[in-house]
């Protein structure tokens, strides 16, 4: 047997298209089926046919369904049936569909959404920002995967590597203890305890803004984190559980932060167990974006490094927790964590 004979295909056919890509096809019961996408290399086309051949052998192959559904018709139905997502996630999906996905792609039938179409759309999306492009691509990928599970598509045509991962351009560093101290000194008194909780308690900003009076035990210094504020469109907010079950936890605050928080409760927090600990200056919900502006202004007045952001405080907390175990005496005597009322 010659080498050429050994390599002869026994299942399916492959042809090279004018574009240079390869199309794979196969016949079953005198009906010819084309692969739902074309392939960059002949090897990729061979692998696809081998997969189909294996499915037929295992009797798990199903004939691809022809769907007349457009993406614009399918997406709202899919989202309506998603009862497993948070209100903020639903709001984000609705926004992405309305602004970024359905205007350029909604008119296409599901099976007409090709890798080339997705690649062109993704290139245009990147002009709106890396994060927006990545989020929209992930949602489209999820949509098409559900269409496959419903038998409306044979395979997902998304083929862009790392398209769902935004490029991080912002430089961010770990704050030093003295920098945290300087920022707190330059933060308005109404928000000073919030900086302390973020830095020494390791909460996310949405978790800290959801804290109420009954979240805090002033005697023990224990702060219970079990709720998070989520911002929804049109200025609405939603209170729900944090991102993961591990985020529901009790946090023991250092005495300096505990005393700072007790003073804050006396001066700035309204009465009532369910009153938010941190509110805006004129009352009402303090948005994360507003606090970020306050923090940046304090950072500039403190004359510390401009690459320190609100999220840097959470990273600082994780690092300091490890350092406390290794060098507790050195850290606990730092002026950064001593309160003026500390005896």
Describe this structure in words.
It contains 13 helices and 8 strands. By secondary structure, it is mainly α. It has 3 domains: 55 residues; 79 residues, DNA polymerase, domain 1, CATH 1.10.150; 161 residues, Orthogonal Bundle (hpI Integrase, Chain A), CATH 1.10.443. The strands form 3 sheets. It has a 3-stranded antiparallel sheet with strand order 1-2-3, with helices on one face. The chain is elongated and about 80 Å long.
How would you name the CATH homologous superfamily of the largest domain? Intergrase catalytic core
Which CATH architecture of the largest domain would you pick?
A: Orthogonal Bundle
Low-confidence stretches: 1-8, 324-343
Basic shape: elongated
Distance between the termini: 93 Å
* Total beta strands: 8
Q: What is the CATH class designation of the largest domain?
A: Mainly Alpha
Please sum up the structure shown.
The protein is mainly α and 343 residues long.
Question: Key terms for this structure?
Answer:
343 residues; mainly alpha; DNA polymerase, domain 1; hpI Integrase, Chain A; 3 domains; three-stranded antiparallel β-sheet; 13 helices; disordered C terminus
């Amino acid at each position: 047997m010659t080498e050429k004979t050994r390599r002869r295909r026994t299942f399916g056919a492959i042809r090279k298209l004018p574009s240079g890509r390869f199309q794979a096809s196969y016949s079953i019961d005198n009906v010819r089926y084309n692969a739902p996408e074309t392939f960059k290399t002949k090897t990729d086309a061979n692998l696809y046919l081998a997969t189909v051949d294996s499915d037929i052998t295992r009797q798990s192959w199903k004939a691809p369904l022809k769907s007349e559904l457009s993406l614009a018709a399918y997406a709202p139905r899919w989202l309506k049936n998603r009862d497993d997502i948070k209100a903020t996630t639903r709001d984000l999906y609705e926004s992405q569909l309305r602004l970024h996905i359905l205007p350029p792609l909604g008119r296409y039938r599901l099976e007409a959404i090709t890798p080339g179409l997705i690649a062109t759309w993704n290139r245009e999306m990147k002009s709106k920002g890396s994060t927006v492009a990545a989020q929209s691509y992930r949602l489209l990928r999820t949509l098409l995967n559900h269409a496959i599970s419903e038998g409306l598509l044979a395979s997902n045509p998304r083929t862009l590597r790392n398209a769902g991962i935004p490029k991080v351009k912002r430089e961010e560093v770990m704050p030093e203890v003295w920098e945290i101290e300087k920022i707190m000194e330059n933060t308005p008194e109404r928000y000073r305890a919030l900086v302390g909780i973020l830095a020494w308690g390791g909460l996310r900003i949405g978790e800290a803004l959801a804290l109420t009076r009954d979240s805090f035990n002033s005697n023990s210094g224990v702060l219970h984190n079990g709720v998070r504020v989520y911002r929804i469109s049109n200025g609405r907010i939603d209170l729900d559980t944090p991102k993961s079950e591990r985020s529901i936890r009790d946090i023991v605050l250092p005495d300096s932060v505990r005393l700072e928080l007790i003073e804050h409760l006396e001066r700035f927090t309204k009465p009532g167990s369910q009153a938010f600990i941190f509110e805006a200056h004129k009352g009402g919900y303090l948005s994360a974006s507003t606090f970020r502006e306050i923090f940046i202004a304090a950072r500039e007045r403190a004359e510390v490094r401009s690459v320190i952001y609100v999220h840097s405080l959470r990273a600082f907390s994780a690092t300091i927790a490890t350092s406390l175990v290794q060098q507790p005496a050195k850290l606990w005597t730092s002026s950064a964590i001593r309160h003026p009322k500390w005896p």
